[in-house]
Design goal:
17 helices, Rossmann fold, alpha/beta, binds magnesium ion, binds guanosine-5'-triphosphate, 12 strands
Length: about 500
């Protein structure tokens, strides 16, 4: 992103916010952890399970501070930001653990503070009082993140980029109605509110169709066209990209001028406040991706995920804006990209999902010329909804996963009721991720992607100890994620 990301006044405000954060941080050390991902990628489930495992003594062998017994207490505390909705941990956990249903979709930002008391590992630090770290977890939609690159784009570039993409692949089908409407519009004619509304509605319908498409195309900005909230119907959300751009400056009062002004309004009303109040204050970030779903849906979905990941990682590129970095005084120094829902695979494939996601990230990082330092990748399951078993068939042992499909789920024509369990063969990922990308790039008509069986299972029944105490939520590699995201801050 070029240095014009925000105006100087914004920078000064961010700096001030950060100073305040840091001043409070001296009294009570904190780490602000951003959790994001496109919708349905597993953000709510991730935070709920992470907190549950911390609060309820989960199995966390790879989270060193807990493993080595240095943590003396973990509790929820009041969050620092009064204006941000609280992450409703108790409701989500009740759904997951008691009702065994997945929590509802959450469509905005929320926050939760977890505070950990610990003994420092170093003898020197132990001489002082015991350590205390607050982790402020901030859950926000990935769509908001994909809006950040707009700060560096004028209306002309935004229009060009958006229209070019709308003409490719499956999107060409989905954008047809809107493109016809756009082509018929006279950019020089006097601005007309009804026409602006029609164009915006049609453009938004195209964006929604992409998102809803079962081939799983990831989201395109502007994100608020999908989740308008209380800005629905405002001028800042009533615009659409236009082409071709007029020569020189557009005439005052023209359709182009109106759309251009509203696009700028979107940036200042929606994108900048998010950047300033939330994004610029994060220390650490986890980006959740549903790579399995993309693989399952086909080559275009995988390419699309890679494109979205490229845009997302570009937001975390360090040092692109030296003025900003110096004013911020701090920036996100660790980013974790995690492929979620690994419990849909047999453990032999976990490393393969890991490798595949790593390759996806490497390609994205390479494309934007980033160093890749501070970025880690892993495959995990926030909640393990399955267990593994083997079945013998035709003299061979086949690895299967066993779980309770959610009510109404059908597998091979058989409908499940949410009570009966079943075993499925989860399918295989390629040993070498390169073969997958080679297949995608060769663009050979009907590409065969590996078959992964993505069945929706219910959350698991929690095991109980002999004394009848329910254990914490089972997971895969959640402890590794914790260690990377904040383990070092508890040293
Ligand atoms: N098996 C399994 N399914 C998961 C896991 N995490 C998420 N899911 C599934 O993915 C769905 C979406 O998870 P959420 O945590 O609600 O996703 P989100 O990113 O918060 O979604 P929005 O709030 O809609 O943006 C859940 O309803 C589950 O079906 C997991 O670890 N294992
Ligand atoms: Mg959510």
């Amino acid at each position: 992103m070029p240095p014009s990301l925000t105006s100087f006044a914004d920078d000064a405000r961010i700096a001030l916010d950060n100073l305040t954060d840091r001043a409070t941080g001296l009294v009570n050390p904190t780490v602000r952890l951003g959790v994001t991902g496109l919708s349905r990628s597993g953000k709510t489930v991730f935070i709920s399970s992470l907190v549950h495992n911390l609060l309820h003594g989960g199995r966390l062998p790879l989270f060193e501070p807990v493993q080595s017994g240095r943590v003396s207490a973990i509790r929820l505390e009041e969050q620092p930001d009064d204006g941000v909705p609280r992450f409703q941990y108790e409701d989500h956990i009740r759904a997951l653990v008691k009702d065994r249903v997945w929590p509802d979709s959450t469509r905005a930002i929320s926050e939760l503070r977890v505070t950990i008391d610990y003994q420092s590992a170093s003898g020197w630090n132990r001489m002082f009082s015991p350590g205390r770290l607050s982790i402020d977890i901030v859950d926000y939609p990935g769509e908001w993140l994909l809006d950040l690159p707009l700060l560096a784009k004028d209306f002309r570039t935004f229009s060009e980029d958006t229209l070019a993409l709308a003409r490719t692949g499956i999107r060409a089908e989905l954008s047809k109605t809107w493109l016809e409407l756009t082509q018929a519009a006279d950019l020089h004619a006097a601005a007309d509110e009804m026409q602006a509304r029609d164009l915006a509605t049609s453009f938004a319908a195209y964006l929604k169709a992409c998102k809803a498409d079962e081939r799983s195309l990831s989201t395109l900005p502007p994100g608020r066209f999908l989740l308008p909230g209380d800005l629905d119907g405002s001028p800042a959300l009533t615009f659409a990209p236009l082409l071709p751009p007029p020569e020189g400056r557009a005439e005052k009062g023209s359709l182009w001028a109106m759309m251009e002004r509203r696009y700028e309004a979107y940036k200042s009303v929606v994108v900048k406040p998010f950047f300033r109040e939330h994004f610029a204050r994060l220390d650490r970030q986890i980006v959740l991706v549903d790579a399995l779903q993309a693989i399952n849906r086909g080559p275009e979905a995988v390419q699309d995920l890679e494109r979205a990941l490229t845009d997302v990682l570009a937001c975390f590129r360090p040092g692109t804006n030296s003025l900003l970095s110096s004013l911020l005084g701090r920036r996100i120094d660790r980013v974790l990209v995690a492929a979620t829902k690994a419990d849909h695979l047999h453990h032999e494939s976990h490393d393969r999902l890991d490798a595949l996601t790593r390759r996806l990230v490497e390609r994205a990082v390479h494309r934007i010329g980033m160093a890749g330092a501070g970025i880690d990748v892993m495959a995990l399951a926030s909640v393990r909804a399955t267990r593994e078993a083997t079945v013998r068939r035709d003299g061979h042992d086949l690895p299967v996963i066993v779980g309770t499909p959610i009510d109404g789920e059908t597998i091979g024509g058989e409908r499940f009721d949410g009570i009966r369990k079943t075993a499925i063969f989860p399918g295989d990922l390629p040993e070498n991720p390169e073969s997958l990308f080679a297949a995608i790039e060769s663009n050979a008509g009907d590409i065969h992607l590996p078959d992964v069986n993505v069945v929706r299972f219910r959350p698991p029944q929690l095991e109980e100890t002999g004394g009848g105490i329910k254990l914490s939520v089972p997971h895969i590699r959640l402890d590794r994620a914790m260690q990377f995201l904040f383990g070092d801050r508890l040293a």
